[in-house]
Amino acid sequence: MATITSLVDTTTTTNQGKPGDTVQINGTSLAATTRVNFGSAAVTPASVTATQVTFVVPSTAPCSGQVSVSVTSNTGATSNALPFFVIATPTTTGLSVTCVPAATGGAVTLFGTNFLTGTQVGVGSVGNVAVTPTQPSQVTFTAPANPGQVGTVSTQPVTITTAGGTSASGSTLIDYYLAPAITSVVPATGTAGDQITINGTGFVNVDTVTFTDSAAATATAVFTPISATQLVATVPGGLATGAGTITIHTCGGNSNAQAFTIT
């Protein structure tokens, strides 16, 4: 009678895997095998020798959990059974941050389920990052920089690949931002309470407009976004007169320091 000594998923090299994986059944007296019993499913072997039978984990396999595997011969004799563990497909539910600078990338924690056998996180067209999750529901990685980005914002899907497959693309997204750039300030001088127009590029989701005075003191300004290339800011009070600068900050980082004189 056939005897099974081990089960090896050729993708994971363990007795764990997912539907579609090829599994090697190792043992003795296997030459007469005509059927692999994968739980309640009858699977036709892909190959058969005296010491090895291969089969493909069926699509009807459970989403996760232990399945008994045995073989049946052409005479109807059934071997001993060994356990095979179906690994659940991972899912993603969110991120610790919604955006990172395109120039540098940044630290991100991905949340979801079934992460423990994860090997890499994919960030759309930007690239893949190797990971070794220690928790089933989250993993921290460094999102790579996106130096070829052209538009101010590039939205990328984030996925994770585990022994159970790859999570669905598009359910979790991260935005890459180019840093803003100031090209002009009109007028280039002003006093506290004055409104000025700041022109440039990348003014998307601006969170801070900062004035720096001649003594290197800083103050944040109240501002009104107009477009991706323009906003109106009110010169803040409490700053020393003289030559200073203005900077704008978004998720992409700080802009250049544009000259501005406080009068």
UniProtKB/TrEMBL annotation:
In residue numbers, the region (Disordered) covers 1-21
User: What is the species of this protein?
Assistant: Streptomyces hygroscopicus
Q: Which intervals hold domain IPT/TIG? A: 14-84, 180-262
What protein name does the entry list? IPT/TIG domain-containing protein
Q: Which Pfam families match?
A: TIG
Domain of life per record: Bacteria
Q: Where is the composition biased (Low complexity)?
A: 1-14
The protein's matches in Gene3D superfamilies, at most eight in alphabetical order, are given as:
Immunoglobulins
| InterPro entries for this protein | Ig-like_fold, Ig_E-set, IPT_dom
